[in-house]
User: Fold these one by one.
Assistant:
Number 1:
Amino acid sequence: MLQVNVELKERRYPIRIAAGLLNEPNSYAPLKAGDKVMIVSTPTIAPHYLATVEKALTKLGCSVDSVLIPDGEKYKNLESLNLIFTALLEKNHNRDTTLIALGGGVIGDIAGYAAASYQRGIRFIQIPTTLLAQVDSSVGGKTAVNHPLGKNMVGAFYQPASVIIDTNTLHTLAKREVSAGLAEVIKYGAIFDEQFFTWLEENIDKLVALDQQALEYCIQRCCQLKADVVARDETEKGDRALLNLGHTFGHAIEAHMGYGNWLHGEGVAVGMLEAAELSRMLGNISESDVSRLEKLIARAVLPTTSPDGMQSQEYLPYMWRDKKVLAGKLRLILLKALGQAYVTAEATEDQVLAAIEKFTQK
C-alpha cells in the first residue's frame, strides 16, 4: 500500500492507495467499532461497491446506513444536498456520525458539503471511484454544489478524515471517464512538475490502458503534489489557485453546455490549451510547448477544441462570474513554462478571446 499524508497546521490525514482496499476493515480508520456511518453514493456506483463497503464496515463493528442521490453533475445541487440531510435526520444521525462519500467527484463534493453543514459539521471520509476524483477532487477539502448561474458557487473548505483510493474501482469506469481524469493528471505536470509531464508523455498509453503499476505511481505523484500545495495554502489564498489551470475556461464550457453534457475533465482539457495559447501570446512559452500539451491531451483521448457551435464570446459571461475575479479583474492561471504556473490579471479581454478562438471549432 502507498500512503500520502496531507499535513495541515492543526492535523494531518492519510491518503491510502492500493488495489483491494475496500475489502479491508482496517482501511477505514479512524472508524472503529460502535461508530455510526452514513454512506452517500449513486445508483451507478452502488451496485458495484456499496455491499463491499457495508460488509467491511459491519465487520469492523460500525452501524451503517446509506442514501443514493441521482447521478451526474446536473444533480450537484441544493435538492440533492437536501436528500442527504433528510436521510440523516430520518435515521437519527447526530454529530458523532461519519459521512462516507462513495463515488466520483460529484459525490465527494456534495457529501463533503453535507458533512460540513449537517449539525455544523460531522466527520467524513472520501472513497473516490473515478480517476479524476482520486487524483484531484477528493484531496484538499473543497466541497460545494452548483448554482444555475455558476459552478461550485455554494460550498465550504472542509477536510476529510481520510481518503481511501482503491485502484480496482477504475476497472468499472467508462473509458470517457478515465480520459476525463487524465486531464487533471496532465494539469499537475503542466503547473508543477516538468519531469512528471515528460513521464506522462512516455506513459500516457499505459494510463489509458489502466496499467496497474503506472496508475499507482501516477495517483501517488498527483496526490503528493496536491497535498503539498494544500499544506501551504489550505483555503486558496495563494498558490493553491494554480491548481485551477484551464478551469476558468473549462467551467465556462460546462455551464454553457449544461452540466454533465461535457465532463469536467473534458472542459479542463480544452481550457488548458486556451490558457497555454494565452501564455504563448504573452511571451511565456513557445509554440512547441503548446504543441506538446495538445499532443498529450489528444493521446489521452480528450477533446482539443471547444464544443461544436460554442463561440469565443460565449465564454465571457461565465468567466466574469468566476470566483477568481477580484476588483473587476479577470485573474487567470497561466504558464511561465511547462512545469511552472502563475496567476495573472494582465491579459486583456481581446487576448483572451483570441486564445479561445485558436481552439474553437471552425
Note: The chain has a mean pLDDT of 95.
Number 2:
Amino acid sequence: QKNLENCQQKLKDYFDETKNGVKTTDSIDEFKLELFTMAELSSDLFVEAEILKLWLDFFGSDLPFFTFQTNLFNSKTLQASDFSAENIISVRGLVKNYQLGKTTVYALRGVDVDIKEGEFVAIVGDSGAGKTTLLNCMASLDEPDYGVVMFKGKNLHKMNDKAKSRVRLLDMGFIFQSYALIPHYDARENVALPADLAGFSKNLRNRIEDLIDGVGIKQQAKQYPAQLSGGQMQRVAIARALTNKPQVLFADEPTGDLDSETGKQVMELIKKFHEETKTTIIIITHEPD
C-alpha cells in the first residue's frame, strides 16, 4: 500500500504540467503530431527515451496500466453512501500483485464490479487471468494491495480477522474445484460442519437432511469422501455450502475436476438452488458455456 501511494504521487508529479512541463493530450492525432515533431529533434528524442527507460525500470513493462487507470490517481476515501444499497458486493479499484522471483505478476489491475442481491454472476476467463484472485479478495480469503470491497455496506477488508471469519461462516458459502471435504468425516458430517461451527446444528438438523436429499446423496450420507465419486463429492460440497443459508455462494471452477456430463449435472443443481432460494451466486469458470 505504501509503495503504491508513493507510485501515485510520483505519477501525479510526472504528469503535472506546472512541475515539469509535461504536456498531456486526449487526442491521438495531436499525440502523433508531437511524436513527429519530437523525432525531428534528436536531442529531445534522446531525453524522452532516457525518461521512458527510467519509468520502464521502475514499473517493468506495465507502464500502460498506470497510464490508463486514472482512478489510481483519485485519493478520495470511498464511503458506504457512495454505493447502491441494491448491491450486496461492490468492488472499486481492486489491485493485487504477486512476486515471482524478480517478476511482478499484476493479477488484478484496478477492477470495478457491482453485484446485486440475488444475481447469478459468472466470471469467465482463461487460466491465469486473475479470476480466483478476484473471488478470493471479494470473499476476504485474500487481501488486496489496493482498493475497496464492500459487502452489505461494510468495508470487508477493514474488519479484523474474527469479524471476517464470522462473515464467511454465516453469510458466505464456498464450493471449491477440489471439493475440500474433511476426509475423516462422512458425507452428512461434512454437510453439517458449518452448522456445527456456528452452533446451529440442532436448529438446522431438518435442513441438513433436506439438503442431503436435495443434492441426491441420501444413499451416500454415511460414506466417507474416499468412497464417493467426484460428482458425489461435489454434491456434498454444494450441500455444505448452503447449510447456513448464506447470502452469497462463491463457486471456484466447481466442474473443473469433473467429466462433461457430471459437470452439467452439478451446474444444473447450482442453478436449481439459485432459482429456489434466490441466493446470490458468483461462479468462476474458463468455459463460456
Note: Residues 161-285 form a domain with the Rossmann fold fold (CATH 3.40.50.300).
Number 3:
Amino acid sequence: MGKKKIHGGKSTKGNNNMLKQKIVKTMWILFGLAVASILMLFVLISVGAIGYLPEISQLENPIDKYASQVISSDKELLFTYSQSDNNRIFVDYSDLSPHLIDALIATEDIRYYSHSGIDFISVGRAVVKTLLLNRESSGGGSTITQQLAKLLYSPPANNKLQRVFQKPVEWVIAAKLERFYTKDEIINLYLNKYDFNYNAVGIESAARTYFNKTPKELNIEEAAMLIGMLKNSSLYNPVRRPEVTRNRRNVVLTQMEK
C-alpha cells in the first residue's frame, strides 16, 4: 500500500505566518496612529487650540511682581513689604552662589545644558517606571525649564488626570521659553519664582529668611538645603521637619559629588 501524503502541517504553518504578519502590520498601524495623534496634539497646543498658551509679551516678562524694599543709607536691606505671596526680591544670576547652580543641575536636570527644554531620556525613564513598573516615584522627567513653565502658567492640579493633561502644554511652553531666554536666564527666573514658604518667595528672600544671608554668601550645605526644598517645600521644611530636610539636603550633596 502506498503512503498517504499529509499536507496539514504546511497549511498550519502558512496560516501562522499570515497571522503573525497581520499582527505586526496592525501594531505598526497603531504605532503610526499614536505618533500622528501626539504630533497633532502638540501642533494644536502650539497654535493655542488646546490648553492655555501665554502671549509672547508674557513670555518676555514672565515675572512682574516684586516686593518693595526699604534700604538704609549704608545700603543694608532693612525690610520689605508686598502683597500676599509676592515677597520676592529680584536677584541677578551673577549674584547667585555657584553652589546653588551646581546643586540645582545635579539634582533636578543633569542634562540641562544639552537639551532644548525637554529631556526625552528622562521622559522615557519616567514613562517606563510609571506605566510598566508601576512605581509611584519615577525619578521625575521634568527639566528645569518645564518646572519653570509649571510655576509660571499651570494652576494647581486637582487630581492626577488633570496633571497629565497639563504636561504637554508645559512641554510646548518650555520649548518656547528656551527660544526666548538663555540657560542662565532660565535658572535665574526659576530661582526667583519658587516659593520657599514663610513668605520667602524667590531665592533672595529664602536665603535671608533661613540663613540671614544673600544668595551669593551661601555655603554648599546651605545651598543644598534650599535646592532640596524645590522638590516640595512643605514636606522638606527645615522649621517643621528638620531631620527630613537634612536627609534631603544630604541627597543633594550626594548628587553633586557624582
Note: DSSP finds ten helices and two strands in the chain.
Number 4:
Amino acid sequence: MSKCFGARIASISCSTSYAKGGPPRYEWKCNTSIGREDGNNDERAWREEGMKNLILYNKEECPFCWKVRLALHESQIDVRLIDSESEEQRKVWQRLTPKKTVPVLINGELIIYESNVILEYLSDVTGRLLPQDSADRIVPRLINSYSDSLIGSALKEIIFEKRERDEHNWDFNRIHAGVDAFGKALVYLSKMLGSRDFFGNDYSMAECALTARFGLAEAYGVEIPEQFSNLQSWYMRMKERPSFDATSPRKGVASPVRVNG
C-alpha cells in the first residue's frame, strides 16, 4: 500500500490518451483509504510513484543523453527509450523543445528538454544525485557544468572529426588539439577529486556527467594519462557499476590517442 502526502493509497490507476501527432498523455488517479501516516518522506514517496511510464527521446552517443540514462539507472527509475534519430519520432520530439535537441524526458504531461534540468528534477523527486546539504551540492554541480563545457568542447573536436570522416581523411591537427585541451582540462578535475571516491559525498550528477564524457573519450581512443592516476581509478570504479554497461552506447573502442604531458 502506497502513501499520498501522508494518506494511505488503496490503489493507483493510469489512463492513457493520445493527442494527434503528439506523445502519449498519462493521467494518474489514486484511491485513498481511511487513515494517515506522518513521515518526512510521504511527499517524495508519492512523487516517486508517479515516475512510471517515463519516455526519454534519446541518442545513444550523445553525452547529454548518456548522463541522463546513467542518472535514471542510478535512481532506479525505468524509462522507455525512443530513438530520436528516427524520422517519424523526430517530428514528434522536435515539437516538444524549442532547442530542437535531445534528451527530452516525458513524464505524463510534464516535458523536460534540458539535460541538467532533468538531473535536478530526478534529484528533487528521488533524493539521489545530490547531497542533502546545500553547501555540499556546489561541487557536484560545478563538476557537471565543467564536464559539459571544458571537457565536452575538447572531446567534441576529436569525436566529430573521427565520426564524420574516414580515417585516411582525418585532420590530425584538429584531433591533437582536442587531445591537448582534454589533458589540460583534467588537471582541475584531478585536483578536485583528490583521494576521494566521488566528487561529492556519494555518487552524484558529477559522476553521471563525467562517466559519459570519459566513456566517449575511451570509445574514440582517448586515454586518461597515468599522471592522473586518481582519475583513472575513479573511471574504473564507474565502469564497474551496473549502470555503465546498462546505459553504454553500443560502439567499439577506437585506436588509442594518448594525452601528452
Note: The CA atoms of residues 63 and 212 lie 5 Å apart.
